[in-house]
Specification:
Elements lengths: L4 E7 L21 H19 L3 E9 L7 H14 L1 E12 L3 H4 L2 H7 L3 E7 L3 H6 L6 H14 L2 E8 L6 H11 L5 E6 L7 H7 L8 H17 L9 E3 L6 H7 L3 E5 L4 E6 L2 E7 L3 H11 L3 E6 L2 H12 L6 E2 H8 L5 H9 L3 E4 L3 E4 L1 H4 L2 H8 L3
Parallel strand pairs: 1-2, 1-8, 2-3, 3-4, 4-5, 5-6
Antiparallel strand pairs: 6-7, 9-10, 10-11, 12-14, 13-14
Helix pairs in contact: 1-2, 7-9
The chain binds iron/sulfur cluster (SF4).
Length: 380
């Protein structure tokens, strides 16, 4: 029960759907924020009975675009968390935001509501690329939002997408070198084509060309080199931070700790009567709202994870981290050792290493073959 515990809140609305996005997000002309905030509080009250008393180390308000919420709604959501759990004084309280002008004008209010870390969805530092990605701002607005956020929030992260259509090393290096000077945490994701997105349809119709896998690998390597050299080394495949600036919330997921998730399409994983429970809520906002109003929560799927399922999840999460997987904790949770013969094989292939006799981690070569490593070590 002493594992770190976090809260995830999902606000599922956006101003427009970006063509690459398959997140649980919706465009709605009118949103009754008060009604939603009341439902979030109700869902938290229901789940509090199941999680029991917890010390919260991190709250993450993600989406969708949570910065479209009025600051008083953010205040109401955080107030609900403080009512039902004990939020530690040094808890990380992150909110995702986009750099459009309406949202930027609310930064001070979000800070006043208690947000101490802003995660900006910048995605590109090039006007043509921003347009292609369907983003509703330009580079000047993005840089203004970053500058302002740095003066208001104690901590700042922003996201960029790379390996975009037609992107080459020169173009990406230019953006990346600009980015590393602007924040102490960067989330740098390679563009992946997700089914049901506009980009996927363009790709299938031959209207969108992605960099080759060789080019994508080269861009990935360059990303590691530049961020390492500039003091923001990777601590996870896509996340880079200066010393001490790692996202505590993300670490909570990757270290396989516990969290409760609220709002449409949110997931939770927490110990309940010593069983690790997964909860998944209804994705569609209107249906989630009605479910919560009718029965106190929007959960549509839940199960206790077997030790085998937990073993696989721990591997999947832990090997993403540069610090690797805590071997003792893996054995404690799963009640079985890692398969020795496969470990030796993967070591011989130069894909994994054991550090200090306590952690299993992917080597630089292994990081790009993680799926293969996980399949090799999987117990299911
Ligand atoms: S703003 Fe974010 S969540 Fe919304 S559609 Fe774009 S990428 Fe998806």
């Amino acid at each position: 029960m002493n594992e770190p515990f976090g809260i995830y809140i999902h606000w599922p609305f956006c101003s427009a759907k970006c063509p690459y996005c398959n997140f649980n997000s919706y465009i709605r002309p009118n949103i009754d924020e008060l009604r939603f905030a009341t439902a979030f509080r109700r869902e938290m009250e229901s789940l509090r009975i199941r999680t029991g008393k917890r010390d919260v180390v991190s709250i993450f308000i993600g989406g969708g675009t949570p910065s479209l919420m009025a600051p008083r709604t953010i205040t109401a959501l955080l107030d609900a968390v403080y009512t039902f759990w004990s939020v530690l004084p040094n808890a990380e309280i992150t909110m995702e935001a986009n750099p459009s002008s309406v949202e930027v004008n609310r930064f001070r209010d979000y800070r006043a509501a208690g947000v101490n870390r802003l995660s900006l969805g910048i995605q590109a530092l090039d006007n043509i690329e921003l347009k292609r990605l369907g983003r509703l701002y330009n580079v000047a607005q993005a840089l203004y939002a970053i500058d302002l956020a740095r003066t208001i929030f104690p901590r700042l992260s922003f996201d960029l997408i790379y390996a975009r259509p037609n992107q080459n090393e020169i173009a990406w290096r230019k953006e990346l070198e600009k980015a590393v000077d602007l924040a102490d945490h960067l989330a740098l994701y390679q563009l992946t084509l997700e089914k049901k997105t506009a980009f996927y349809r363009y790709y299938m119709a031959g209207k969108l060309k992605l960099p080759t896998s060789e080019m994508a690998a080269s861009l990935y390597e360059m990303t590691q080199e530049v961020t390492q050299a500039r003091g923001l080394p990777a601590y996870e495949i896509s996340n880079h931070a200066a010393a001490g600036a790692q996202s505590q919330h993300n670490l909570l997921y990757w270290r396989y700790h516990q969290y409760a998730g609220f709002g449409p399409g949110a997931h939770g994983r927490f110990l309940e009567a010593d069983c690790r429970t997964v909860t998944i809520t209804e994705c569609l906002p209107e249906r989630w709202l009605k479910n919560v109003e009718r029965r106190g929560h929007g959960i549509v799927h839940e199960e206790y994870l077997s030790q085998e399922q937990q073993a696989d999840e721990m591997l999947l999460m832990g090997l993403r981290l540069c610090e690797g997987l805590d071997i003792d904790r893996y054995q404690l949770i799963t009640a079985k050792p890692l398969p020795k013969n496969r470990i030796v094989e993967l070591q011989e292939q130069g894909l994994i290493e054991i550090t200090d006799n306590t952690r299993l981690r992917a080597t630089a070569k292994g990081q790009i073959l993680l799926d293969y490593i996980i399949r090799s070590l999987s117990v299911t």
